[in-house]
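Batch queue: ligand-bound targets. Current item pairs a single chain with zinc ion. No template structures supplied; prediction is de novo from sequence plus SMILES. Inputs echoed for audit trail.
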Amino acid sequence: MLHKCVDAPAPPRRDTAALAIQGSLAMPMSLSCHCGASRILATGNPLMHAYCHCQGCRELTGASVVATSTWRSGDLGVAPNSRPLGEYLHATQQMSRHFCTGCGDVMFLVNALGMRAVPHALLEHACQGSVPALYAPVMHLHYAQRRVDVLDDLPKYLERAGGPRHGVAAAMAGIVATRAAADAVRERIGGDARRA
Ligand SMILES: [Zn+2]
Ligand SMILES: [Zn+2]
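Prediction returned. Tokens below.
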């Protein structure tokens, strides 16, 4: 299925983000900021799509939760026809924000692993308000640091992907507690039966 943004006419002053080829976005893919002066270029496929709840992402974007797609540093950079991006290093986290000096749009964050996380707002700009289905977040990261609870069925990793997950320990504790309660009831019924 082709993405919605493929059929839509290109919005004014935007690069074409999504010239889709049967199920994947065509590479290279260009994304531009709100004012159009800054552009980034992805030349390879993203590594992951996630909601991040970490303090660094929250502080560097001003959002409570940030939906991003993440590329290796070699697969995403500033486009040749872009205005140079501004850069801000987080004071305490090993992260940086790379932004348009014209409109302030965040073009990408560089995380502690050196990977480049692009806020989905840029994809929305390019795709007329919707993120292509292939780029939809498939997990929550750093959920232990969240400021908002999210009710969905996606895995919620307390920190990085593949680590311990939110709710799994609690669910196990619930099962154990339920079993103990059932055993106690059975015990009491058995005692009553013996006394009868
Ligand atoms: Zn701009
Ligand atoms: Zn984060």
